[in-house]
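Lecture notes, unit on protein representations.

Consider one protein chain, 112 amino acids long.
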Amino acid sequence: MKKIEAIIRPSKLEELKTALDAINVRGMTVYEVLGRGLQKELKQYYRGKEHVVDLFQKVKVEIVCIDESVAQIISVIQKVCQTGQVGDGKIFILPVERVIRISSGEEGEEAL
C-alpha cells in the first residue's frame, strides 16, 4: 500500500474530488496548509505599510491506496491540478506498512 500526498491549489480541490470519485477513489483526508516553493514572494500594502507574503495557501490531499492504483491516481491529480504555472504543487508517494479500520478491526486492503 502507498500514501499519496498532494499539495495543490485550493481552487482545484472540488474538481479533483469529482475526478477521483469518477475512478472510485473516495477515501481521502484534506488539510488547509501554507507553503512556499518556487513562487516569488508578493509585496502587498495594508494601511500604507508594505507586507511581504511568502507563504501561500494550499490544500494537502492524502490518499492511502493499493499499489496498483497509484499510477492512475497520480495521473488524475496531474491532469486536474496542472496549470503549467509555478505554484501548482507537488505529489509525494510514501510506503504504508499497515492499515487498520477502527470500527471493524479489518486490516490491510480490506480496511481501505
